[in-house]
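re the bet — no i am not wrong, look at it urself. input seq straight from the record:
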Amino acid sequence: MPTATSAAQAPPAPVGLDVVVREWGRIGCLGFGGPPAHIALLHDLCVTRRRWIDDEAFEDAVAVCNLLPGPASTQMSILCAHRVAGRRGAIVGGLCFILPGLVAILALAALFLAGNPPDWLRGAGAGAGAAVAAVAAHAGWGLLGPAWARAADRRARFVTYLLAGAAAAALLGAWVVVVLLACGAAELAVRRPALGSVLPGPLLAATLGLSGAIGLVWTSFKVGALSYGGGFVIIPLMQHDAVDRHGWMTDGQFLDAVALGQVTPGPVVHTVTAVGYAAGGVGAGLLAAAVAFAPSFAFILAGGPRIGELRSNRRAAAFVDGAGPAALGAILGSAVPLAAAIGEAWQAAVLGGAAVALLVLRRGVVPTLLAAGVAGALLVTAGAPLP
């Protein structure tokens, strides 16, 4: 059996920073397809090819990152770099993983969200954006089976948390974080009644609303520090903040931003960079990214050798057993507001085609979004109305 700290023990011979830059930069450039692709690339590098980490330690690292809030694949890239090259390696490796996608999404945001792009490019964005609801359903469905199997001894509570998360995402986007935290607290209360009020501070803070630059910082912080289950969990909340509360974007532009987060390499959380760009240009986009990713670095660097102890922490595991199903429900529920944001009949047809490609034919996310973008460009060029 692996030890509690096996995911964070120092390697016998630390790797040089030049190697970290090269290898983590390669993953940052090639990491299309979201967390499953990122984990596979990290496993191939650290376990299969370089043998810096053994399989048991890698599995422990994955478990630890799933216990932490925020983007798990980003945390995994930082933790693996910490494992092979220490604290400096963690910082360098995390930045090399994040920066290629950050540069790409800022460039694409400038094309889609600023100025007056040509109609065919706007059509491509509208087509890819129309497919985003199917991508959310695909992401949630892919996680549902394994999560259900792990919940064999708590199926009734699993369904309750799942439905709560789905309802919050579909109907109450601004309250998604509150529901996730409440479900985690509820599971803690079931297992240890004395801990039922362990999270009053975060629950209260999650209900606050701010405006302007502080509003952008708060939205980005929620993305990076208060979300469980990956980037799609936070999409309903981002949509509420960016479209309804602050008016930084239209519904159509938000769909474009989510699509851009999918077709660029690196974590889906890059979507918040596009939201920041819409709020205030390049500087605001960089600010949003910095705030969203800072907690991932803080969790790993502050935890140091003890980060692996979360694996065996019963309270942390209980909280995730409640928040995790709610996060899964939120991913599935996010398809509702995303689909509701569609403005034209042809976009509904593109959404249907994307759903068939992803859920029936099992095509990849990136090829499906690219195909939807091409379809949108062709339809608009042929005379279909822009949303």
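see?? DSSP finds 17 helices and no strands in the chain. told u. also The radius of gyration is 20 Å. so pay up
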